[in-house]
Amino acid sequence: MKKLMLFALVLSLGTFSWADGKKDSIERLANAATVLDEIMAAPDKGIPQEVIDNAKCIAVVPRMIKGAFIFGGKHGRGVATCRTANGGWSAPAFISIGGGSWGLQIGAQGIDLVMTVMNEQGMQRMLSNKFQLGGDAAATAGPVGRHASAGTDWKAGSEILTYSRSKGLFAGISLTGAVVQQDMDSTRDIYRKKITQRSILSGAVATPASATGFMAAVRRSSAVARAAEVREGSKQ
What we know:
This protein is α+β, with helices and mostly antiparallel strands. Helix content is 38%, strand content 31%. Strands 1, 2, 3, 4, 5, 6 and 7 form a 7-stranded mixed beta sheet that branches. The chain is globular and about 50 Å long.
């Protein structure tokens, strides 16, 4: 009897843990959708439409923590999606990003992070389970504004363009040294089994119902940027 009761307790605790993890992952999808919508709709400081139209993958990390006290550090958890062979977007893959930098720094802040993967090589990095920005994959602070062409050679060789928003301010950001890898816990929470990043982002996995909002935000991102550009142009 005692063994049976212990087994039931362990099972119930595991169920509660899974439920909490799933709730957190669903909230992350919702927050990522909100972040992408808000950034793309910014009147003059959003991600240019040209960047979104040419992106092979989009990753959003809401409320990433970037803090420092003597040693810099950053950590966040987000979601990514890539274009599939049929021209659509894959189901979302859950990612984590972390890394550090040396230097005398004091301060801490929460930022919203967006990464756009701009070529096939960068896409292959994203499809892997782990890679380093600036090491394995060339990453550059992305151009900001309604047009991407001014003063930047973003099409030349950048595999990944990186952006951040903090306290209402939006700009490109350097994340050299940060490591991006699959968030296995959240993957299991949502998909209920172990699935590789490549399987999800290549389009081999169906999009779960909990990701509907995020996927809708990704699909409308180009149109939102175009509308923001029209509004900005009408003011001039």
